[in-house]
Amino acid sequence: xxxxxxxxxxxxxxxxxxxxxxxxxxxxxxxxxxxxxxxxxxxxxxxxxxxxxxxxxxxxxxxxxxxxxxxxxxxxxxxxxxxxxxxxxxxxxxxxxxxxxxxxxxxxxxxxxxxxxxxxxxxxxxxxxxxxxxxxxxxxxxxxxxxxxxxxxxxxxxxxxxxxxxxxxxxxxxxxxxxxxxxxxxxxxxxxxxxxxxxxxxxxxxxxxxxxxxxxxxxxxxxxxxxxxxxxxxxxxxxxxxxxxxxxxxxxxxxxxxxxxxxxxxxxxxxxxxxxxxxxxxxxxxxxxxxxxxxxxxxxxxxxxxxxxxxxxxxxxxxxxxxxxxxxxxxxxxxxxxxxxxxxxxxxxxxxxxxxxxxxxxxxxxxxxxxxxxxxxxxxxxxxxxxxxxxxxxxxxxxxxxxxxxxxxxxxxxxxxxxxxxxxxxxxxxxxxxxxxxxxxxxxxxxxxxxxxxxxxxxxxxxxxxxxxxxxxxxxxxxxxxxxxxxxxxxxxxxxxxxxxxxxxxxxxxxxxxxxxxxxxxxxxxxxxxxxxxxxxxxxxxxxxxxxxxxxxxxxxxxxxxxxxxxxxxxxxxxxxxxxxxxxxxxxxxxxxxxxxxxxxxxxxxxxxxxxxxxxxxxxxxxxxxxxxxxxxxxxxxxxxxxxxxxxxxxxxxxxxxxxxxxxxxxxxxxxxxxxxxxxxxxxxxxxxxxxxxxxxxxxxxxxxxxxxxxxxxxxxxxxxxxxxxxxxxxxxxxxxxxxxxxxxxxxxxxxxxxxxxxxxxxxxxxxxxxxxxxxxxxxxxxxxxxxxxxxxxxxxxxxxxxxxxxxxxxxxxxxxxxxxxxxxxxxxxxxx
Length: 833
Prior knowledge:
Elements: H1 5-17, E1 23-26, E2 38-42, H2 44-47, H3 67-73, E3 77-78, H4 81-109, H5 113-117, E4 137-143, H6 163-175, E5 178-184, E6 200-202, H7 210-218, E7 249-251, H8 260-265, E8 283-293, E9 296-305, E10 314-320, E11 332-338, E12 347-355, E13 361-363, E14 368-371, E15 374-383, E16 386-395, E17 399-403, H9 429-434, E18 437-439, H10 458-465, H11 469-475, H12 485-489, E19 502-503, E20 517-520, E21 530-534, E22 537-541, H13 547-550, H14 555-560, E23 573-577, H15 586-591, H16 595-612, E24 616-618, H17 641-655, E25 662-668, E26 681-683, H18 686-693, H19 695-704, E27 708-711, E28 715-716, E29 719-720, H20 725-735, E30 741-743, H21 763-769, H22 779-790, H23 800-818, E31 828-832
Helix pairs in contact: 1-16, 3-7, 10-23, 11-22, 11-23, 16-17, 17-19
């Protein structure tokens, strides 16, 4: 297979970094291996390796290297082909039954099968296969997939291991000289039954080069240096305080006690804590020194490789905020740093810094951000459960750092908090006594000022003001055709680029307003691998429909997408290539704790956007890992908002370093479950909203200025996020200074089935709230806006100025994106007879 130069370059870059996404949970020194002798390979992910999640997370890369292929490429002789053949057939039969059951349920409910099948994940089946081919060295690859449209479950074959997996993993661990359990997963699995296994590696899902990178790590050509960005625990140990997966109202009663904030605050020990990860070597963190300049805190330390192999380490800085009027978690991540590669015995001096204002908490009673008086304990270490106190910042008086407004609505409960506020564990008294104390002068703390927003070009304002009401409505909707509803359902509503998710209207190009194209993400661009061009325009060849959806598409729906039942196109013309690179999933990128790598991944996406004529990438996605059962956690980065915001900002800067390329950060906000995804109501306190769920978005907006933001499907305290003026105007624009466009998620008639407590979001209400563009757009949306302008919409009235304000932003971003845009890569593969 001959690759284009850009593909080779991108795969080489990813392969050089991707091992940093892997997390070594346990090791006994048996790995890396010295040679490529025979190896026994087992498990669901050995041959059916997963590169990423389903739905919008599925990238149509040219190829994908499975674990089996990667080991073979490296020269290993795999002794267990018969076992993998047997498992493949068992899984094929299980999948056939799984699809039939979903179709039967859909028929009984009188809904399209795609509505129940989208995101549905088949639990891995139980099996009875003899462990033939056992060698001195064995690897068991356990895989799990999840995706858009369905949440995970605490059942065998999903969050829990099957009895077959437990049995074989333990047998292999006890009988093989060297054994590695490899986790090809996008989220947490409960490892309680197999914790005695001596070597456990979170491979994660690393995109196109997954199998090759694992081979590199097994042979020591590269090494794992990732750390967990979410807490791994047994299912019953996660917080049961708040709801998850409710059909209508999901109450976030746990407040700010999410992830490690919960485990650390109640002293519950997880299987593997937040920030944890081993390597092929060991490190020490020595001589921490704290300093304070104004409100800027700096912690310097020396990291030493005290092992015998090369490696990288991640140093983490946490702060225990004093609890006064406001209760506080035991600790909060404040900064982190990843070292360069250190050889055995080598050292590196690192610095971590933050400003004290970033530790302020939202006081709901006064609608302010506040730093309360007391001692702020600085903790340095290698995970949230392996830290020592390295200094204290003392604040003698409470300081209000920002006057804010009430936003987001009010829940019908009080947030939970621990019965006692314990900031120190046994044995820390001496550390506190030895710690250097720095006095924070209250005059050094700055009060946040109103951000400045760039002025809009007067020519754009005039151009939009000259439009008719009909034209304004088109500009505030995605580019639609009356017959593209089926394509819209699966995020394939583009016309200018095959496989694109959508675009802004092209009806106003003669008036000088450009149309711009959007492609889905977040693990790379999701476009058709190949497309044709004939007298009717462009069309996808072969894979317009995501592979996970094919089983649930009937003949009528396939025809609506332009496909024959066989999947062949009923078109002619020239055929072109459009190969995109499948990146590591979001959680894997965050596990690298390497912002340079994250920016490089953004750079790869930006390069491919230029090649294929894409203006907006519908990514990065960085909602919080509130529960390990959220089906889209693999797309998201972490349970912590700081690392989420920093990773998102790095990716954004990488993409937007390419002129004419922008990102769409999403999903704003509290999109933490897939159950009833279009109409679930997240009930959240103002404090939890601001301190946890909005914070990552704030970091990304302020550090990277993304071109666009996507609101979420869910409601927030009873109102759709796209219809909440308080979070779109008051917070996003006025507090943070966001000057890009706000778009809805894909709200289409094809998904509007069943009776639920809450309605779907509407175009007119969303535009009135400041959601600039409703995607993917439809004639019904246009009529909704026109009726609201005419005063005949029973739900809402729109003024022309309200629509003009949204339309101006859509046009302004269009000019910014299209000034230097053009498809750079148009390779004809063949003529289609």
